Amino acid sequence: MNKAPLVSIGIPFYNSDSYLKFAINSVIMQTYSNWELFLLNDGSTDNSVNIASSFEQEDARITLINDTRNKGLPARLNQLSELANGQYYCRMDADDIMHPKRIEVQVNHLLENPKIDLLGTKVIAIDNENKIIGLRKGLTKKKYTLNHVAHSGWCAHPTIIGKTSWFKDNKYDVSLKRSQDYDLWIRTVIKSNFINLENPYLYYREASTPTLKKYCKATLYKLKIFYKNKRILGQWTSFALSIKSMLKVLVYIFYWLLGQTNGLIKKRSVSLNPDQLYIHQKILKKIITL
């Protein structure tokens, strides 16, 4: 494994002291050992920096960048890719948890398929108490087109690993505080090769505090993305996607009025069978109690 390529992992964090320890534990527990981890503080005011610092002191592969300014996620994502020294760069959020074999499986697939630029995986959704909700819905395809990405997306953002050079050449729009990944995929999919693995290798924390304000704000950024990319999407597609997003807001408001927004989150996933549930619960417990 010592001759395996270096993988740079970037975790930006902002007031994430409830979950950051679990995210870092899951990196340390990877079966793939040739990695470097950058923990980038985005102006946290809680105990996150102390948690990150304690891990930096224990493992030479971990580096904390402590910035007291709050620049926002897209700016930090661009910063992390510039810091990366590895052949591959791995996305990770501070509230998610990696499957122990995530890096090993994804790196092996990339080495066997060098034409792939970005590689995602399916995810298992978890709640705020680290309880499994289910396997997140979504179809995997051998080749993702602009139509696939624009209408259905292609993977969960924090599952992505890819060529570091790709991330350095393709930056996130720092003006988009939300949905910056969606915008990046629209701008790059035509010239890139995106692949999504059929098996889940990330425990993805669903919206920890779903609110009407957050949902509406995310929709406004989506509308901005459709407008700024109308030449790529085509005016009709841009208009149709805008209408679709606004209709989704109406549906969300309906569920919000009924106090059933958590029901919408659960609809995104399908239940695991008992054997699968047992295996993944065992993995999560080991990471959380490390």
Automatic annotation (TrEMBL):
Entries under InterPro entries matching the protein: Glyco_trans_2-like, Nucleotide-diphossugar_trans
What protein is this chain from?
A: Chondroitin synthase
Molecular functions (GO terms): hexosyltransferase activity
What EC number(s) does the entry state?
Answer: 2.4.-.-
Q: Which residues span the membrane? A: 236-258
Source domain of life:
Bacteria
| Span of domain Glycosyltransferase 2-like | 8-136
Key words, A-Z:
Glycosyltransferase, Membrane, Transferase, Transmembrane, Transmembrane helix
